[in-house]
Amino acid sequence: MFASQGRVSPSLLSLALLLHVSLSSILILTPVMLLLLLDPVSRLASPQPLRSLGVKFQRLIPLVGEFVLYFAACTCLSTLTSGGWSWIPQTWGASLTLPDLTPNTGLWWYFFTEMFDHFRPFFLMTFSMHLLIYIAPICIKFQYDPLYAAFLLIGILGTFKAYPSLSDLGLFISMIAVFPETYPCTLSGKLHDPTILTNHKTSVTPYQGTGNANFYYASTLVFACSNGAALLDCMWAGLRIAIGEVNEEYAVAQK
Predict the structure, then answer these.
(1) pLDDT digits (tens, 9 = 90+) for 127-146
(2) Are 234 and 176 in contact (CB under 8 A)?
(3) For residue 231, what is the DSSP state?
(4) How confident is the model at residue 3 (pLDDT cuts 50, 70, 90)?
(5) Is the dihedral of CA 78, 163, 229, 171 positive or negative?
(6) Between the CA atoms of 175, 13, 164 and 190, what dihedral angle is there, to the nearest 10 degrees?
(7) What are the CB-based long-range contacts (under 8 Å, 24+) for 17-21?
């Protein structure tokens, strides 16, 4: 919100606090920086490269410096409060080493429950790096509208992060209302809600004692597939709107 309003310091401070609390939130660092360089105007219908928009990348240097300063201040305050650096493996390290395999709405916990310890470090690195590969292609493709790029990365984060919650996906779904111009371009036009299935499995397993981890993972798979379908639909709508209105007399093919 601060970045959309052009308020540099509050947006960078909020981003530093967010990254300090959740290390995987580094995904939205790049689009927020780009949003601070541009005015918050939707350009989905008329995409243009950043060079034609008059963006001065020299302005990134003070922005990055201010963000690093805020993040370093948060780190120092946490160190002084805890009396040492022991808080790092218990906070940032938790999202990288996955010590708690309690069932949640994510995809990591069941995979690593069935994982042999010998292969655990390799797949932890693979799953962690998997989140980072989306930053460059989405920010490059939607460079003319960094707010939409941040919106898509928030959806990816809510689906594939180590310890997601319903609030992560809720933020993504609520942000769909920010881009009403994409509604006619969506494929499905509706979102499926698998939370009823999740609540049922939560009731069956721990309280009634009649389920197992496979029930939980089945519901999280349905949840992830639904999230992925909504994410792909929003990504398609953001690309499709640049073509214009649908005309039955011709079809547009991209090769």
Answers:
(1) 888 889 999 999 988 888 88
(2) yes
(3) H
(4) confident
(5) negative
(6) 0
(7) 17/70, 17/74, 19/71, 20/71, 20/74, 20/75, 20/78
